[in-house]
Amino acid sequence: MSDKRLTLKKRLHIIKHHFRGKKMAPAFNAFHTFLFTPDETTHNGSHIRAADDLKRTMNTVIMALVPVLLFSMFNAGYQHYSAINGFPENFSVMEHFLTWDNFWIGIIKVLPLVVVSYIVGLTVEFIFAVIKGHEVEEGYLVTGMLVPLIVPIDTPLWMLSVAVVFGVVIGKEVFGGTGMNILNPALTIRAFLFFAYPTWMSGDKVWVYEAVERAGGPDAISGETILGYLAQNKAAEMTYTTSDMFWGFIPGSVGETSTFLILLGGLFLIFSKIASWRIMLSAVIGSLVMGLIFNGVVDQGWIAETSKFYGLMSFDFWKHLIVGGLAFGIVYMATDPVTGAQTNRGKWFYGFFIGFISVLIRVFNPAYPEGVFLAILLMNVFAPTIDHYVVRGNVNRRMKRLKNATVLPEDSEGKEKELQVETA
Amino acid sequence: MALLTKKDAKLISDPLADNNPITIQVLGICSALAITAELKASIVMAIAVMFVLGVGNVVISLMRNIIPSKIRIIVQLIVVATLVIVVDQVLKAFAYELSKTLSVFVGLIITNCIIMGRFEAFALGNGPWRSFLDGIGNALGYGVILVIVGFFRELLGSGTLLGFKVLGDPIAKTGLYSIGYENNGFMIIPPAALIVVGVIIWVQRSRNKALIEDH
């Protein structure tokens, strides 16, 4: 075989052998396995051959996120120009939304967020891989895409970098890296930003491009989110229609606005069996239940119209799903297989409480009208506990069945104690 | 003759590093989380604990042969309480603002596990001089962590050190603030102290592998 006929793949394999055993090997291997499957195979044991490795799983989620990202780029421009010129009267998607002007704003504002998120996050991953001497893990591929989609568009890039370093190191690497983390890294990053720089993460000045720079001037613009309006009891001033909320022509964090595309992404993830439909469905149910309870309280007249909770409590229960980050959180964050509940029954509890607590925080904490990230982080912490009780419950049920069996299986005498010790 | 024998010197140096009361024994965490938002409060707290622990250790050590072992905890508590009240009154008299900042945590020195721990583990079985060194050593170990945490939390959270605006003025936008830097509000709240202490423990353990326990 002459050198000329070497494919890129083979060349990389040759380079790989040069690197073997050296300090930079993990860094090279990361690039290598990003492009091709490695040429190494396991040498012992029997294995199932399956194409869906971790990288494939991650890529599927990213595919589900691409429409959301594209939409958010157009929406960045649309919100910006609408805030300056007023919302168009006869809105048509082709004329007012899918324009190059809008997309350009997306390119100069949204794309840098994505690039910075990936560069910083992957750098941290590479550094840790080289220090620890293991392969670079693909864990950051999805996180890196989620992060720019859950922050306000005007987030300064240095803040994002600081938060990404914090999230990847404290949220993931200290626990042992990809697959070992307790908290969802993307949400850890969001939470860090929220508590560290609250003025950049809430209010009415951060959701529209340039609103911060123009604040206080004669050409000031603002883009209050729907939840922001409701939290201030200003539902009457809101000009967005329900269909705007569903299609996503509203201000908000970069990628959270379009419930329609998130729904499509969610269906795609369910049919490709990447994400759990149990978590998604139970989270939707949980939020609807909480919303119904609040609507009921309002219907009973137990709460005055002047109450600061009235705006959000009287909000139609199902609309909670199409505003703010609830839909995005349920589809892309709650379903994280590492931090979520693992047992099927546990997933129902886990999802239900995410929806339930999200709406609860939304309504009862006007200081931050969005509670999805807090709810998911909280349930991340409780997921192992939920799983523990589901497993224990299963064991106890089987023990009971064993005791009640009329004909004891052979050799079961005296085994009960042993079993209990084993399963405790 | 050296001022301290090698054995005595170890009493001071051990708690500073490989037997640190906070990072290794994980004692006295509550106050480390609560009052470290400012460097000044951390330093005063460290000095207060040093006084209480140093003097308390000597007192307990002197009385160690006459304390009935059944009521020794009560005796220890009385000694700590007396010393803490002295510290509290001194602070109120000479540094009223600071005593406001430290608020209830001066009083809570009484419950600081490090103090009772040293009384029980060391002062009851050793002479006054060695007990004194042990008390100072442990208080220093506690203080060092407090000062490190306070340093980072005040610098990153408020952009100041001991009240001096080392990073510039956030309102007039001078120094770092003129290029868009902002204070990290997360560092002001107590959970940040937990994370900073965690990072210190992490650094310490990766430098000294002997500290990592087997699973």
TrEMBL record, chain A:
Protein name as it appears in the record: Na(+)-translocating NADH-quinone reductase subunit B
Similarity comment text for this entry: Belongs to the NqrB/RnfD family.
EC number from the UniProt entry: 7.2.1.1
Subcellular location per the Swiss-Prot or TrEMBL entry: Cell membrane
Keyword annotations from UniProtKB, A to Z: Cell inner membrane, Cell membrane, Flavoprotein, FMN, Ion transport, Membrane, NAD, Phosphoprotein, Sodium, Sodium transport, Translocase, Transmembrane, Transmembrane helix, Transport, Ubiquinone
Gene Ontology biological-process annotations: respiratory electron transport chain; sodium ion transport; transmembrane transport
Binding partners and assembly: Composed of six subunits; NqrA, NqrB, NqrC, NqrD, NqrE and NqrF.
GO cellular component term, pick one: plasma membrane
PANTHER family documented for this protein: ELECTRON TRANSPORT COMPLEX PROTEIN RNFD, NA(+)-TRANSLOCATING NADH-QUINONE REDUCTASE SUBUNIT B
One Pfam family cited in the UniProt record for this chain: NQR2_RnfD_RnfE
Keyword Flavoprotein: yes
Enzyme class: translocase
Keyword Membrane: yes
Topology of this chain in the membrane: Multi-pass membrane protein
Needed co-factor(s): FMN
Gene expressing this chain: nqrB
From TrEMBL, chain B:
Chain segments annotated as transmembrane: 43-62, 74-95, 101-119, 131-152, 185-203
Matches recorded under InterPro entries: NqrD, NqrDE/RnfAE
Keyword terms: Cell inner membrane, Cell membrane, Ion transport, Membrane, NAD, Sodium, Sodium transport, Translocase, Transmembrane, Transmembrane helix, Transport, Ubiquinone
Taxonomic classification: Bacteria, Pseudomonadati, Bacteroidota, Flavobacteriia, Flavobacteriales
Main location as per UniProt: membrane
EC number(s) on file: 7.2.1.1
PANTHER family in the record: ELECTRON TRANSPORT COMPLEX PROTEIN RNFE, NA(+)-TRANSLOCATING NADH-QUINONE REDUCTASE SUBUNIT D
HAMAP family the UniProt entry points to: NqrD
Name of the protein in question: Na(+)-translocating NADH-quinone reductase subunit D
Molecular function (Gene Ontology), one example: oxidoreductase activity, acting on NAD(P)H, quinone or similar compound as acceptor
Topology within the bilayer: Multi-pass membrane protein
Entry's localization field: Cell membrane; Endomembrane system
Record's GO cellular component terms: endomembrane system; plasma membrane
Subunit field text: Composed of six subunits; NqrA, NqrB, NqrC, NqrD, NqrE and NqrF.
Function in brief: NQR complex catalyzes the reduction of ubiquinone-1 to ubiquinol by two successive reactions, coupled with the transport of Na(+) ions from the cytoplasm to the periplasm. NqrA to NqrE are probably involved in the second step, the conversion of ubisemiquinone to ubiquinol.
